[in-house]
Each structure stands twice: as structure tokens, then as C-alpha cells.
């Protein structure tokens, strides 16, 4: 990502570039980077999992354990039913570390202008490609919608949570349609937020690398450190939004189910209560 000795201007790459073909498929530098980063991440996490013990260890193992615990608590606290929450912890933990390490690995000097395939950089940050962030947002929302429908008890009950009242009321119908439209725009907001933060960070580092010339590592260092924090923050935001989208639908469905059971119980008990004549309960 950083060109240490740029003479013709800062090297800024917004669009991904094709590096080779597999049949008719063009493999871009962001896809290639995503594959490499995923392989490295898988190896690191498997290595970490084999070293997890009851007594906490320092270093990378403790960092991963802290991240897993943080996301687990985040997911469980968002749901009313902790049993349901635990089913989705693995997905959100994986998503968090995937975004985090893909963003952090993208700050390495070998990414961007470190290596080239012709005139195209060999590697480009996966999260710095709008196609990639859009794909992650689609997968996340598919998981959210599928889980929401399943936990709600069916598509009909899931759609019902958009209505604050009877759909026969025109006002409630309009509000529900607006809620559904807003729900569909979440894919765009998730993908754009992550992409723009990573892409803008790339641009800032590239500009200050160019201004620093031979001292590029020093001039870009403060902004690289900032991007480490931005990467962690954006990973958290992406995950917390996905968690909240799912939790809102599931909690609403569980609340309606519990409320319906309570009303049904009250109706069953009413005949006995109403059937008592005044004073008959005293014997």
C-alpha cells in the first residue's frame, strides 16, 4: 500500500486490478489478497485454538481469547434469550477477526505497491474493495434474515414485526413499508461504511508516504497507527450492527410469542374466575 520512493505522485489505487484468470473468471488483486489473508488467518486461529488453556497465556493467544470473549459478551447481551444468542456467536466472532486481520494485513508494505503483476499491484486490501465489502454485507444480511425468519417461526411472523399496528390501517402500512425499505438499505450502508474508511485511510497514508520521500516510513507511521485503531473500530461496528439487526427481530418475535401465550393463559383462566358468584369463593 505504501510506495517508499514515489517520484511522480502518491500511488493511490481505488479500483481493484486483474492479476490472472481462472477460465473466464478474472481474479483481482483484492480477491488474491483475501485468499492469502484468509489462509494466514486460518492457520493463526487453528494454532491459537490448540494453545488455549484454562490458565490465560500472554501474547497473541491472549489477544485472540480476549477478542472472542468480547464478541461473545456482545452477542449474548443483545439477545433476551442467551440460548439463542450462543448459536450465532461463532459466525460473528469469525466475521470480526476476518475484517480485523484483513484490514490490518493491508497496512503491510508488501500490500499495494510492494509487488506488481505487470503494472497492477499484486495485492490490494480485501476490505478496500467495494465489491468485497458489498459481498460481506450481503452474506451477513442473508445470515441475519435467515436466522430472523427461523427464530421468528416463519416468514409471516417475521414480516409482522415491521408493523406497529394492524396492516389495515394505512398509516401503519406506510410505516411498515418504510421500515422494510430501510431494512434493505442496510447492505449498502454496511458495505460503504467499511470500504470508505479503509480506502480513505489508504489515500492518507499514500499521500504522506509521498511527501516524506525517503523518510516515508516516519511520515506515514502516525497515520498507520491510526488506521490500526480504525480497522478495529470498523470491525466492531460491522459486527455490532449485524448483531443488532438480528437481535431486534428475534427479541421482537420472542416478545410477541410470550405475550400471546400470556393472553391465551388468561383466557383459559377466565371461565373459572368469571363463573364464581360473589362470595362463593369464601365457602
Describe the structure.
This protein is mainly alpha-helical. It has one domain (18-268). 69% of the residues lie in helices and 7% in strands. It is built from eight helices and four strands. A two-stranded antiparallel sheet has the order 1-2. Strand 1 (18-22) and strand 2 form a beta hairpin. Helix 3 runs antiparallel to helix 8 (216-274). The protein is globular. The termini are far apart. The relative contact order is 0.14. Mean pLDDT is 80; it is low at 2-6, 263-267 and 269-283.
Top keywords for this entry?
283 residues; mainly alpha; two-stranded antiparallel sheet; disordered N terminus
Helix-strand blueprint:
Elements: E1 18-22, E2 25-28, H1 29-49, H2 60-78, H3 82-105, E3 112-117, E4 120-123, H4 130-152, H5 155-160, H6 170-184, H7 186-212, H8 216-274
Antiparallel strand pairs: 1-2, 3-4
Helix pairs in contact: 1-3, 2-3, 2-8, 3-8, 4-7, 4-8, 7-8
Largest sheet features:
2 strands, antiparallel
Beta strand %: 5-15%
Form type:
globular
Strand order of the largest sheet: 1-2
Mean pLDDT: 80
Q: Total number of helical segments?
A: 8
Cα-based radius of gyration, to the nearest Å: 26 Å
The helix content is: 55-70%
Number of beta-strand segments: 4
Unreliably modeled segments: 2-6, 263-267, 269-283
Structural class: mainly alpha
Q: In total, how many domains does the architecture comprise? A: 1
H/E element sequence: EEHHHEEHHHHH
Distance between the termini: 87 Å
Amino acid at each position: 500500500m505504501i510506495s517508499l520512493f514515489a517520484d511522480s505522485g502518491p500511488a493511490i489505487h481505488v479500483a481493484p486490478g486483474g492479476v490472472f484468470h481462472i477460465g473466464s473468471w478474472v481474479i483481482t488483486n483484492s480477491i488474491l489478497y483475501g485468499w492469502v489473508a484468509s489462509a494466514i488467518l486460518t492457520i493463526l486461529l487453528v494454532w491459537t485454538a490448540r494453545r488455549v488453556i484454562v490458565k490465560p497465556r500472554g501474547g497473541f493467544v491472549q489477544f485472540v481469547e480476549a477478542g472472542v470473549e468480547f464478541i461473545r459478551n456482545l452477542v449474548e447481551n443483545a439477545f433476551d434469550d442467551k440460548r439463542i444468542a450462543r448459536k450465532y456467536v461463532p459466525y460473528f466472532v469469525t466475521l470480526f477477526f476476518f475484517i480485523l486481520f484483513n484490514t490490518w494485513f493491508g497496512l503491510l508494505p508488501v500490500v499495494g505497491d510492494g509487488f506488481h503483476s505487470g503494472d497492477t499491484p499484486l495485492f490490494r486490501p480485501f476490505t478496500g474493495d467495494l465489491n468485497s465489502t458489498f459481498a460481506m454485507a450481503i452474506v451477513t444480511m442473508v445470515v441475519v434474515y435467515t436466522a430472523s425468519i427461523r427464530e421468528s417461526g416463519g416468514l409471516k411472523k417475521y414480516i409482522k414485526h415491521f408493523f406497529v399496528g394492524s396492516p389495515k390501517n394505512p398509516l401503519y402500512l406506510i410505516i411498515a413499508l418504510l421500515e422494510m425499505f430501510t431494512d434493505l438499505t442496510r447492505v449498502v450502508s454496511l458495505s460503504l461504511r467499511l470500504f470508505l474508511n479503509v480506502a480513505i485511510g489508504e489515500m492518507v497514508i499514500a499521500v504522506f508516504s509521498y511527501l516524506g520521500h525517503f523518510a516515508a516510513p516516519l511520515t506515514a507511521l502516525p497515520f498507520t497507527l491510526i488506521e490500526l485503531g480504525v480497522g478495529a473500530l470498523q470491525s466492531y461496528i460491522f459486527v455490532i450492527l449485524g448483531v443488532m439487526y438480528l437481535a431486534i427481530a428475534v427479541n421482537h418475535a420472542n416478545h410477541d410469542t410470550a405475550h400471546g401465550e400470556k393472553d391465551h393463559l388468561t383466557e383459559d383462566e377466565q371461565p373459572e374466575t368469571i363463573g364464581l358468584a360473589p362470595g362463593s369463593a369464601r365457602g
